Amino acid sequence: MNEHAHPKSVAERADELEEEKMHEMERILTKSTIAHLMDGEVKMDTSPEMRAKYPGKYFLMGDDPRLPPMPQKPTLVDYFRHRFASTAHLLQSATHALKGGQPEKVVLACLLHDIAIVSFIRCDHGYWGAQMIEPYVDEEVAWAVKTHQALRFFPDESVGYGYPDLYKELFGPGYKPEPYIVDEYQRARKHKWYMTSRLICVNDIYSFDPNAKVNLDDFVDIIGRNFKQPKEGLGLDNSPSAHMWRTILWPTRFL
Ligand SMILES: [Fe+2]
Ligand SMILES: [Fe+2]
């Protein structure tokens, strides 16, 4: 059958362009299985298949040339500037907390609360984000980041926090959180750091003034005082979550 008999879909055309681009590259780039799962396909890039497609080339085992270069010893600020796809929401939330006179711990929690979404994985972003930062921040900050994911779905009138209108728009009016989220909320309710996590929700603002000036530079000192930047570089240290940062640093490494 003539392959040109039917017009190519956008996805097919995108695949072709990706492949053309790959042929121009020095090295073979691979996608992780999770990236294919996210495209709705249960498949993986295997070495025989990839080597047949790009004969004579070696697999990429370092920097992805398509991504902004990172310094030898990257800091959290470098990840903000070169790996986080969007920082406005984080900066707006942290700015709101700062203006509201919150302690630095809360400001930092607001600044980092959605880092998993902007750099890594959406599903269960609170849990992923908390693990990413856990070795480098106060335990309370990591706990608050983990738990805000559940608290976001439950109102607390004592601090004027209602169920977000945006969630009705995004998920439909009848959406009910999964049982594990309900359980997390109930545990969090009784926890000594409940209010720290709740303050992330209170400052987690989506309809912020689009003209508000936010700048990462305003938070560099707070990060410096509250985030234990490893001297080897974030991801190149030996912390329990260094591999997560390395994966963001080198997302297309073969191994
Ligand atoms: Fe969040
Ligand atoms: Fe958020």
Could you walk me through the main structural features you see in this protein, from its secondary elements to its overall organization?
By secondary structure, the chain is mostly helical. It has 14 helices and two strands, in the order H-E-H-H-E-H-H-H-H-H-H-H-H-H-H-H. A two-stranded parallel sheet has the order 1-2. Helix 9 packs across helix 12. The radius of gyration is 21 Å and the shape is globular. The chain starts with 9 loop residues before the first helix and ends in a 6-residue tail after the last helix.
Helix content: 40-55%
CA-based gyration radius: 21 Å
Please state roughly what percent of the residues sit in beta strands, choosing from under 5%, 5-15%, 15-25%, 25-35%, 35-45% or over 45%. under 5%
**Main beta-sheet annotation:** 2 strands, parallel
Number of helices: 14
What's the helix-strand series? HEHHEHHHHHHHHHHH
Structural class: mainly alpha
